[in-house]
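REQUEST ID: PR-0412
SUBMITTED BY: lab tech R.K.
PRIORITY: routine
TASK: structure prediction, single protein chain
INPUT:
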Amino acid sequence: MSNTHVVIMAGGVGSRLYPLSTPERPKQFLDLLRVGKTMLQITVERFLPVAPVENIWVVTSSDYVHYVREQVPGILPDHILAEPCARNTAPCIAYAMTKILKKHPDALVAVTPADAYVPDVDAFTTTIKTALEDAGSSDHIICLGITPSRPAVEYGYIKASSAKSPDVVAKVDSFKEKPSLDLAEEYLKTGEYFWNAGIFVWKAETALDNIRRFAPSIAGVMSSLAPSFYTENEKTELERLFPTCEKISIDYAVMEKSPSVYVIPAVWEWSDLGSFKELERFMQNI
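STATUS: complete
OUTPUT:
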């Protein structure tokens, strides 16, 4: 779809994989899986069935802009959003949505971390297309929930008691923090909980409406920033105003508060490759 855009969040430092991942070159810019492609490049390729590279945006640290340019040569210069400091995912997403809306008022957007690994790209594409179709005809905020394969304590969970079928949109009951092992085992038994992959699909306007409602201080900063977008003043204004944003995740700022959050249960394998143990597990399956 020509109005479909993808925002890749690529600003983290991957501290749990230190010293493989370092603040100078974090994991999203590394060939972690030894396949000749970095995690960022793999993520871009995964989304090409739903959006051309011209519709892909990367939000990253100003220190990492050169990596994005090197690794995604087709990306438009205006689509590399360089944060002057790390303020977590709510300001990151608010910045991207505000800038996209300035030129693409009807944009449908998928938001994803840069470091997720999904082996089955075809199944992933099916789920994303279902999410885009639903978001395009509603004011839903769609989360992708991964059907748990084990009682993992390293992931947050989404509770959706009405979610009974894969790739069918269901209302979210609540978000749960990373649980103890005992609690994770209980979650697994109920069949009502999903891993939170941190992948979201929505209309850009819907996302920004929710940010205005539930994180008004961040929305206010973006309103002040917006006149500078696509101008030579953007960098200066970003350096002045972006650090004033509250440092908060989109989960805390919006997802846990909004009545418009839905989930699509996904059955494909997924990992954030956030630890050496997880990385080793996936390497064994390649």
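NOTES: Residues 121-136 form the longest helix (16 residues).
REVIEWED BY: pending
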